[in-house]
């Protein structure tokens, strides 16, 4: 029988997540093992097929014997690890982080084209954010409608950089990037030009599909009509890695 | 090259200076330059003339007492070099008086006593050459024993020997975290990789801190020597110094030092005629505080956006371009040469049980003697502020001292007797940081202090992770509201909650420590916050 050319030298470890005993390959991250075993872990920046970002901090988990928290997306599993993914403390932190996001820009669900299909909205519901105690900043951000097929609404952007990564790592165009710093950060196409003038954009639409909110959407959609499809990503990513 | 060859060279360089009976040293570090030391240097050089070859005026590095600058020291060989005469607040008009004064009869009106506690209570290891040698002179550094530690390491020690000495010294990272240097070096040394890097972090950005700047401006060769020894110990041959562009003088002196060390064969393909190759390049920071964080700094060197990435993997495993990388602060590297020269045990004999050696502090704020000091670890804060620092000016009362910059906290009067080391400061809710100390008197409002540092963190946040990006901004907004007397009890409660979340969930040290100034002022001065809340 034909053997695979190289057998990866990876060990398998056992660990316990929320009192469930599980096994995992030691090169997997906590979030990968959780997703595999249908243990819900909130995240807005992580996406299977894209590189690790570690920016949304919603996937923080507790490790037994450690006082600090660990991001599940950027922490590898280890033998004997004991992980808690949903303690009261973590729930409280997650609610606050989601509140910070809602207060940062203008996420007005009722008029958003992604209403009902938005990852931020889902997470807010799942985590029990029924109101925002943090003062809204209420700064108006521009909308870029210069592209013939798509639209970028900075008001809905949470700077997860999924668009930046998918464009760079999967499409290979690197149209998107982040400019400025702190709360002045914003997603830009090419050298901060209107999206429609971009020389590098291939209009593939991957960025639109991976965007968790209504920041990147198709033109011509109305409230609640923007449904996203991310099934292509793991398939394309696997093919890219095989090459 | 053998140690004897180097000693011969040093003797030769000293002999060149034998005819000089009197040396006039003018501080040309940034602090004294800003109070006008360059015209003083020029006037003194003119007044000295050629001096028959017996008088020489030279620019030197920082002498410490920056508040009294420009500082000039006159060392007469006929009176014994040890007791040089120090002059303060020198102007170009004083030049002829200083040159004209004779040994034993100094210009009394300008004299700055050197037996005062500011000088007497210090112990100089890192700053031993600072204010004595010309930072631009390679010969000057060799003449005082420079590069002997490197030659000793290369010719008489194995990399393992070097690691043993550094570990035995108990040196801990001077950038703030206090990670054991020996452990860090050994970890990188153990990594099996063909390519490794050494990085010197000179992106000193804490407000009120200028230790690394002074070391680079006063004694740049010492840092290069420390880096070369580190590279030899861990098996690297390429290094970067990441300096912030706001330190043009430090950059210039470092460039000169690299050029001269290369020419003399202490950098390059055959360091000190051995098979060891070592090259150093300078990288300039573009003004982002977050680039002092090691993973952001490495991204910046690679030409990427300067923002941190999750650790692990730590730089020791996967650093610059994925290679194992040793990254230390300027002051850490500056401690290496004396450790190799005198042995790790000598260094371990200084300081406290868990924090060895000396620490350079920058005294700033409401304190009589602002400037740079170096004291053994374990010196009490009261000694530093009242005895060495000369206390609070204008008869005001002391209120608090802030250590660790925007990542640290403040320490009130009742804890002043604590012996300063990494662990004692931690128990007080602050940290050593890189060594900035900002002293505040009774007129300082602690809510303002917290707001100031929060504004700093807010504008310096890279924006990658949400808690730091949005959290610092919200905390700043709340502090601003409270400082203006418009805050309610609910605002204070929200502020404390945000502090907890941002501290626990931020991606890098900037965010994780950004709430510290708020938490520590709340811990010791909660009444000041409550007084400001609307409706009492």
Biggest pleated sheet of chain B: 5 strands, mixed
Put simply, the count of helices of chain A is 6
Helix content of chain B: 40-55%
Contiguous helical run count of chain B = 23
CATH superfamily of the largest domain in chain B: NADH-ubiquinone oxidoreductase 51kDa subunit
Domains of chain B, number = 4
Count of DSSP strands of chain B: 13
Tell me the distance between the termini of chain B: 74 Å
Which consecutive residue ranges of chain A, at least 5 long each, have pLDDT under 50? none
Shape of chain A: globular
Give me the strand/helix succession of chain A: EEHEEEHHEEHEEHEH
Q: Nearest-angstrom radius of gyration of chain A?
A: 19 Å
Radius of gyration of chain B: 24 Å
- State which percent range the strand residues of chain A make up: 15-25%
Walk across the major sheet of chain B and give the strand order: 10-9-13-11-12
Distance between the termini of chain A: 24 Å
* CATH level 3 topology of the largest domain in chain B: Rossmann fold
Strand content of chain B: 5-15%
Task: Find the CATH topology of the largest domain in chain A.
Answer: Alpha-Beta Plaits
Which terms summarize this structure?
heterodimer, A: 243 residues, alpha+beta, Ubiquitin-like (UB roll), Alpha-Beta Plaits, 2 domains, 6 helices, 24% helix, globular, B: 536 residues, Rossmann fold, 4 domains, five-stranded mixed β-sheet, four-stranded mixed β-sheet, 13 strands, 14% strand
């Amino acid at each position: 029988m034909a053997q695979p050319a190289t057998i990866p030298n990876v060990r398998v470890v056992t660990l316990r997540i929320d009192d469930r005993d599980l096994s995992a390959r030691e090169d997997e991250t906590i979030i990968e093992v959780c997703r595999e075993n249908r243990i819900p872990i909130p995240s807005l920046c992580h996406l299977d097929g894209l590189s690790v970002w570690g920016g949304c901090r919603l996937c923080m988990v507790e490790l037994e014997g450690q006082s600090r928290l660990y991001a599940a997306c950027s922490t590898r599993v280890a033998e004997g690890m004991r992980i808690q993914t949903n303690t009261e403390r973590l729930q409280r932190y997650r609610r606050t982080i989601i509140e910070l996001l809602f207060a940062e820009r203008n996420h007005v669900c009722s008029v958003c084209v992604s209403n009902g299909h938005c990852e931020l909205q889902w997470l807010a519901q799942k985590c029990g954010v029924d109101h925002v105690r943090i003062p809204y900043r209420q700064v108006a951000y521009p909308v870029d409608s210069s592209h013939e097929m798509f639209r970028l609404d900075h008001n809905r952007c949470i700077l997860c950089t999924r668009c930046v990564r998918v464009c760079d790592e999967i499409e290979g165009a690197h149209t998107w990037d982040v400019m400025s710093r702190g709360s002045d950060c914003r997603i830009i196409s090419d050298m901060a030009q209107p999206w429609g003038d971009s020389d590098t954009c291939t209009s593939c639409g991957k960025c639109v599909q991976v965007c968790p909110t209504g920041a990147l959407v198709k033109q011509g959609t109305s409230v609640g009509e923007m449904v996203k499809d991310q099934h292509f990503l793991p398939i394309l990513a696997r093919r890219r890695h095989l090459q | 090259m053998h140690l004897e060859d180097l000693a011969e060279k040093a003797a030769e360089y000293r002999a060149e200076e034998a005819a000089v009976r009197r040396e006039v040293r003018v501080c040309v570090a940034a602090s004294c330059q800003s109070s006008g030391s360059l015209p003083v240097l020029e006037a003194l050089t003119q007044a000295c003339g050629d001096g028959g070859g017996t008088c020489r005026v030279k620019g030197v590095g920082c002498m410490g007492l920056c508040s009294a600058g420009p500082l000039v020291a006159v060392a007469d060989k006929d009176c014994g070099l040890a007791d040089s005469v120090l002059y303060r607040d020198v102007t170009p008009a004083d030049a002829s008086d200083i040159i004209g004064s004779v040994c034993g009869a100094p210009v009394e009106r300008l004299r700055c006593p050197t037996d005062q506690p500011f000088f007497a209570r210090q112990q100089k290891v890192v700053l031993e050459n600072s204010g004595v040698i010309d930072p631009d002179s390679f010969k000057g550094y060799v003449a005082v024993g420079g590069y002997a530690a490197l030659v000793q390491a290369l010719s008489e020690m194995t990399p393992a020997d070097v690691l043993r000495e550094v570990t035995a010294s108990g040196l801990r990272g001077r950038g703030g975290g206090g990670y054991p240097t020996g452990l860090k070096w050994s970890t990188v040394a153990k990594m099996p990789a063909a390519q490794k890097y050494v990085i010197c972090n000179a992106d000193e950005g804490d407000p009120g801190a200028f230790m690394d700047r002074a070391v680079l401006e006063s004694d740049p060769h010492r840092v290069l020597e420390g880096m070369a020894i580190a590279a030899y110990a861990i098996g690297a041959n390429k290094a970067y110094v990441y300096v912030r562009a706001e330190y043009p003088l430090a950059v210039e002196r470092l460039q000169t030092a690299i050029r001269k060390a290369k020419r003399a064969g202490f950098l390059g393909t055959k360091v000190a005629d051995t098979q060891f190759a070592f090259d150093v390049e300078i990288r300039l920071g573009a003004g982002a505080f977050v680039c002092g964080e090691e993973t952001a700094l490495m991204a910046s060197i690679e030409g990427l956006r300067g923002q941190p990435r999750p650790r692990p993997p730590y730089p020791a495993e996967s650093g610059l371009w994925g290679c194992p990388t040793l990254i230390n602060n300027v002051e850490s590297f500056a401690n290496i040469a004396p450790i190799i020269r005198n042995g790790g045990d000598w260094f371990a004999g200084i300081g406290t049980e868990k924090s060895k050696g000396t620490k350079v502090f920058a005294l700033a704020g409401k304190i009589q003697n602002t400037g740079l000091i170096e004291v053994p670890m374990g010196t009490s804060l009261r000694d530093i502020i009242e005895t060495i620092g000369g206390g609070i000016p204008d008869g005001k009362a002391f209120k608090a001292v802030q250590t660790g910059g925007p990542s640290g906290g403040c320490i009130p009067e009742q804890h002043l007797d604590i012996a300063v080391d990494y662990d004692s400061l931690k128990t007080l809710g602050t940290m050593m940081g890189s060594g900035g100390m900002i002293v505040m008197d009774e007129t300082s409002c602690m809510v303002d202090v917290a707001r100031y540092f929060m504004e700093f963190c807010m504008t310096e946040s890279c924006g990658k992770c949400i808690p730091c990006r949005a959290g610092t901004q919200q905390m700043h907004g709340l502090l601003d509201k409270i400082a203006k007397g418009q805050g309610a009890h609910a605002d204070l409660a929200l502020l404390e909650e945000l502090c907890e979340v941002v501290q626990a969930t931020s991606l890098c040290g900037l965010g994780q420590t950004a709430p510290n100034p708020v938490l520590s002022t709340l811990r010791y001065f909660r009444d000041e916050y409550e007084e400001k809340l609307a409706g009492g």
